[in-house]
């Protein structure tokens, strides 16, 4: 057996650099220079622009600077950033994921603003729209001059969009839309809504500009989660649209579900941002908060919590990175996105709850970010597919048996 002195120098080379509690697995080494630059740029913007104000916005239940924030995010290239052309950045899926990570480390509402704008509304137009529709809307949306929303969920049909009641009927050369959509992020500030409706030909997508007669958007109040986010109900009362308002390739339920799958990739990363903030808050608190004459971080139970939190956080980051690389390579499957969303949001919630216990009573104070992130993640757990729906997606993939309507 070789002696310790004769062991290869690379075996424990990491010891010479010391252990980094912020990056215990050395995950930064998986990122290239451009990805690190994107991450750091978004992190600085969030620290300067969002963090000083977010607790107040959350407590007031509003996002008063949404239009200014959207234009600033457009200037950063964060809107529709993985799309190509029409003023979009054409960045990698990993760069987009890192952007979502840093935005949600500030607040889930800010990441939701970007996700809905880029991964739902802009992606739908980019993927399913006509060339004229792309040219009309995408450059202004990429710049943050126009905000978009995505109208799929209905009051009686959330997890089962196939049961939607919103209808579009042909009237001469026009379409007439009637129905309601709810829990629509950005709805009441959007300049254009991507609305999905049932037609005689099946589900189709339509672009509904704000101000169209018969179209109204009312903000939903009294939320206990995602309070620093605009959430709305859309009403379509005989909304008449020209034939050119229909997304020519947006036919069938697979179209909106494909948009959701694209957006869920950002959630896989974003949830880990919220978890990271709560972990870092708990770690800092444990090092300084004293009980029984010593910092609580010196007690075994607290260290066990912190160790488990760190393990799940960085496992989740590894999963996000792996799925991002698969998306960049064109090999990411919807079932794998469900895998990521199910695991990372669920584990992020667990990390936030453990952080809350470490902070004790201070954990419920908005002086700290933990309760805010914890409450936000309750919404993230539900939207764009509940945990139960993603379990069934994986269950079907594993067994070959469809349990959705069993």
Question: Layout of helices and strands, plus pairs?
Answer:
Blueprint: H1 33-49, H2 54-60, H3 66-76, E1 84-85, E2 88-89, H4 93-106, H5 108-128, H6 131-142, E3 148-151, E4 167-171, E5 174-185, E6 192-199, E7 202-209, E8 215-219, E9 231-242, E10 246-251, H7 254-288, E11 290-291, E12 294-295, H8 300-328, H9 334-359, H10 370-382, H11 387-399
Parallel strand pairs: 3-6
Antiparallel strand pairs: 1-2, 4-5, 5-9, 6-7, 7-10, 8-9, 11-12
Helix pairs in contact: 1-4, 4-5, 4-7, 5-6, 5-7, 7-8, 7-9, 7-10, 8-9, 9-10, 9-11
- Tally of domains: 3
- Rg estimate, integer Å: 23 Å
CATH topology of the largest domain: Butyryl-CoA Dehydrogenase, subunit A, domain 3
Tally of separate helices: 11
The second-level CATH architecture of the largest domain is: Up-down Bundle
Which H/E pattern describes the elements? HHHEEHHHEEEEEEEEHEEHHHH
Family: Belongs to the acyl-CoA dehydrogenase family.
Organism: Streptomyces hoynatensis
Domain Acyl-CoA dehydrogenase/oxidase C-terminal: 250-398
Domain Acyl-CoA oxidase/dehydrogenase middle: 149-239
What does this protein structure show overall?
The protein is α+β, with helices and mostly antiparallel strands. It has three domains: 116 residues, Acyl-CoA dehydrogenase/oxidase, N-terminal domain (Butyryl-Coa Dehydrogenase, subunit A, domain 1, Orthogonal Bundle), CATH 1.10.540; 104 residues, Butyryl-CoA Dehydrogenase, subunit A, domain 2; 145 residues, Butyryl-CoA Dehydrogenase, subunit A, domain 3. The chain is 49% helix and 17% strand. The chain is built from eleven helices and twelve strands. A four-stranded mixed beta sheet has the order 3-6-7-10. A four-stranded antiparallel beta sheet has the order 4-5-9-8, with helices on one face. A two-stranded antiparallel sheet has the order 1-2. Strand 4 and strand 5 form a beta hairpin. Helix 8 runs antiparallel to helix 9. The longest helix has 35 residues. It is globular and about 80 Å long. Belongs to the acyl-CoA dehydrogenase family. This is Acyl-CoA dehydrogenase. Keywords: FAD, Flavoprotein, Oxidoreductase, Transit peptide. It holds the Pfam family Acyl-CoA_dh_N. InterPro entries: Acyl-CoA_Oxase/DH_mid-dom, Acyl-CoA_Oxase/DH_mid-dom_sf, AcylCo_DH-like_C, AcylCo_DH/oxidase_C, AcylCoA_DH/ox_N, AcylCoA_DH/ox_N_sf, AcylCoA_DH/oxidase_NM_dom_sf, Glutaryl-CoA_DH_mitochondrial.
